[in-house]
Amino acid sequence: MVPMETSVIHSATSAGLANCTGNGDPMVLMASYSTSGAAVAMQTLLRRNVSVSGETDLAAAAALSLLSGEHGPVERWPFYTYLCGAMFCLLMSSGCHLLACHSEHASYVLLRLDYAGITGLIVTSFYPLVYYTFLCDPFSRTLYLGSITVFGAAAVAVSLLPVFEAPELRWARAALFVCMGASGLVPIVHKMLVFGARPEAVVTTGYEVAMGVLYLAGVLVYATRVPERWMPGRFDLVGHSHQLFHALVIAGAYAHYHAGLVYLSWRDMDKC
């Protein structure tokens, strides 16, 4: 489907009104509307039935324009999925910090939910990027979305293992989440190879790079326990690594939120 230009539609509509008044030619308008199968079929019918009035011609063309779906907003669910993933991540983290002291069992369960929340944020971050970039490429879209979803499910399964919370595996936990996030480089590079000349692709990639840098900084702070490792006791209440980790994650999620807004604007104006 080729998006229709507003100026062309307006000029074609004016020409159609002029020609359909008096000479009975119903074909003027249809040339400027969608080239979908429905439009072609209607065009053929109108060619054969020259008695159709100009008013009916206009109504048919307008109906085809609406039915084609070219002017409606693009699907919002990938963007909303990302927002839900971000909120779920922060909610699980808040619940873990607030209630983990209740009991050993509560701590065990809430830590798993915290890991699941981090995984959910990473996985859903892919959805706007992949869905809107490859809106017109179903194979790539399905491949990337399917891969990251399976990867995320595997990460959640691994995080359920009791050994996963061992202090000596702190780096392993960090590495797992870094690898998940780094896999996003593949669709981003693919996007730039295909759409690198478009300003929307450049802007969204900038936001995604900022998101990745902020997430990576957060993981490094989390894994290295900076700055409290340098001055033990000085950051017990304010400024310790876990607080910095959360602040960096929120900043990264906010950067990706802006990328999502650009994707929506892009695909609302330019569908397949």
Number of strands: 0
- Our estimate of the beta-strand percent is under 5%
Query: What is the overall number of helices?
Result: 10
* Total domains: 2
Q: Could you give the order of the helices and strands?
A: HHHHHHHHHH
| Rounded mean pLDDT score | 81
Assign the structural class, choosing from mainly alpha, mainly beta, alpha/beta, alpha+beta, or little secondary structure: mainly alpha
Morphology call: elongated
Radius of gyration: 26 Å
Helix content range of the residues, please?
Answer: over 70%
Q: Spans of 5+ residues with little confidence (pLDDT < 50)?
A: 1-42, 48-58, 60-69
- N-C termini distance: 6 Å
Describe it for me?
This protein has 272 residues and is mostly helical. The protein has two domains: 6-67, no CATH class; 77-269, no CATH class. It is built from ten helices and no strands. The model is unreliable at 1-42, 48-58 and 60-69 (pLDDT under 50). The longest helix has 30 residues, at 104-133. The protein has helices at 6-20, 37-48, 54-67, 77-99, 104-133, 138-159, 170-182, 185-195, 199-224, 241-269. Helix 5 (104-133) runs antiparallel to helix 6 (138-159) and helix 7 (170-182) runs antiparallel to helix 9 (199-224). It is a multi-pass membrane protein. It is found in: Membrane. The chain crosses the membrane at residues 79-101, 113-131, 143-164, 171-189, 201-223, 244-266.
